[in-house]
Amino acid sequence: MRKRILLSSPLIMIAIFGSFGLKRPVNTTLPETLRIKEPTAVLYPQYEIAPMPQRVAPPFLGSTYVGFKEALAFKESQGNYFVINTLGYLGKYQFGINTLQLMGVYNASQFLNDPSLQEKVFMTNLARNKWILRKDIEWFVGHKIHGVEVTESGILAAAHLAGAGNVKKYLRSYGNYDTKDAYGTSISEYMRKFSGYDVSRIMARKNPRI
C-alpha cells in the first residue's frame, strides 16, 4: 500500500502543476456603469473651514496655595514656563522686566529657562504685594464690591495683574477705578476669578529679593 502511494505521488503532482498551465485567461470586462467617459469636477468648500479651538480647563487643585498659583499660571500662560507673550512678558506667570529687576533678577534668558527661579520670583512678588497692600487687606477683606466678595487671594491676584498701586485705587474707590491690562482683563475680573483661595502661607515682606 505504501509503495503504491509513493509511486503515484509524482503523477499527482504533475497533474496538479499541469492543470495551472491549461487554465484559460479570464475575461474581465468593466461594467458600463463604472466607466468614466468624461472629466469629473472636483468640488471644494466655498468657505474656509477653521478648526474649532479646544476648550482646555486647568487642573483642579482645590483652594490651597498650590491651587491658587496653578490657576493663576493657567490664566496667564496655560502653565508654560518657556513662553513669551506679544508684549514681552515672560514665563509661567508672565513677569515683566521691571518687576524681575525689583526681585533681583537681571538675566531674562536665565529666568525664562529656570522653572525653579520662576516659582521663587512668583512667591517673592506675592510677599512684596502683600506688604504693600497689608492695610487694604485688613480693611476690605470680607466686604463686597459690585457684588463680589473681596478676599486676600483676589487682591493678590489682581495685584499680579495690574500692580499693587492700581489695586489700592480699585479698593479705595469701591470699584470705580477698574483698570484693564493690554488684553482687556480687568482688576474686577481677577478679584472675582481668584476669590477664596488660602494664601495664608504667604508672609508679607518689605522689599523682598531673591
What are the SSEs and their pairings?
Layout (H helix, E strand, L loop, with lengths): L1 H21 L42 H13 L19 H6 L5 H5 L2 H18 L1 H7 L3 E2 L2 E2 L2 H11 L1 H9 L14 H7 L17
Antiparallel strand pairs: 1-2
Helix pairs in contact: 7-8, 7-9
Characterise this structure.
The relative contact order is 0.11. Strands 1-2 form a two-stranded antiparallel ribbon. It has nine helices and two strands, in the order ααααααββααα. The chain has 210 residues and is mainly alpha-helical. The chain is elongated.
* Secondary structure tally: strands: 2
For the residues shown, what is the average pLDDT? Answer: 84
- Envelope shape: elongated
Oligomer: single chain
How much of the sequence lies in strands comes to under 5%
What is the rounded distance between the termini?
99 Å
Neighbour order of strands in the largest sheet: 1-2
H/E series, N to C? HHHHHHEEHHH
What is the helical fraction, as a range of percent? 40-55%
Given helix and strand content, the structural type is: mainly alpha
Radius of gyration: 36 Å
Biggest beta sheet attributes: 2 strands, antiparallel
In the predicted model, the low-confidence regions spanning at least 5 consecutive residues are: 1-8
Q: How many individual helices?
A: 9
